[in-house]
């Protein structure tokens, strides 16, 4: 699958693996892909995020992702649905963290001294993002899968990354609009945006 990925897209996957390893996560998740996209500079995705006003708010996105991992990866919509059933997710998280430490529900083991050896596998959510990124490239008639396709996939699939990005003003529609404007501007945004 990765033979169609550009250098920037491969760098996102490598960066996501590093995020997962630093966190001690047993698998690479969609959230790790989002964090790795945020790390990129000088790529189509980074220029699109800057155009949407996210350049100065990347830390806020990363904090929101971290908070969702503390809730065992539940999105705010899922936590709200459980609240409708009388289940207070924040109270559960608080009690579990009292007994087992902060981040105990994240599935990450860095703070608990757990070890995961070797390369991490891709979680179901990460596989869905990679598959959707390929579909995004095909739908846009692009020969290769770039980091912008990974970002598009993160905005369209339900879950924490899409919710966090939307909360910060990055939706599939706004991203498509910005990426389309870059293509119509001649030069695709890479060289021209870097020089300015």
TrEMBL record:
Domain named Clp R: residues: 2-186
Please identify the protein, giving its name as recorded.
Answer: Peptidase
User: Sorted alphabetically, which keywords does the UniProt record give?
Assistant: Repeat
Instruction: Give the coiled coil ranges.
Output: none
What is the scientific name of the source organism? Streptomyces mangrovisoli
Q: Which Pfam families does the protein's record reference?
A: Clp_N
- SUPFAM superfamilies noted in UniProt: Double Clp-N motif
């Amino acid at each position: 699958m990765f033979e169609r990925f550009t250098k920037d897209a491969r760098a996102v996957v490598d960066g996501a693996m590093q995020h997962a390893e630093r966190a001690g996560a047993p698998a690479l998740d969609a959230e790790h892909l989002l964090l790795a996209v945020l790390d990129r500079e000088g790529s189509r995705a980074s220029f699109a995020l800057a155009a949407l006003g996210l350049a100065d708010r990347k830390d806020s996105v990363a904090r929101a992702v971290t908070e969702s991992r503390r809730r065992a990866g539940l999105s705010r919509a899922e936590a709200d649905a459980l609240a409708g059933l009388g289940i207070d997710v924040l109270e559960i998280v608080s009690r579990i963290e009292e007994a087992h430490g902060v981040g105990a529900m994240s599935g990450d083991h860095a703070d608990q001294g757990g070890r995961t050896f070797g390369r991490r596998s891709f979680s179901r959510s990460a596989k869905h993002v990679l598959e959707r990124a390929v579909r995004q490239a095909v739908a846009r008639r692009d020969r290769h899968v770039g980091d912008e396709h990974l970002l598009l996939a993160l905005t369209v699939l339900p879950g924490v990354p899409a919710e966090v990005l939307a909360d910060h003003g990055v939706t599939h529609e706004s991203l498509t609009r910005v990426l389309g404007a870059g293509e119509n501007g001649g030069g695709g945004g890479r060289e021209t945006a870097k020089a300015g």
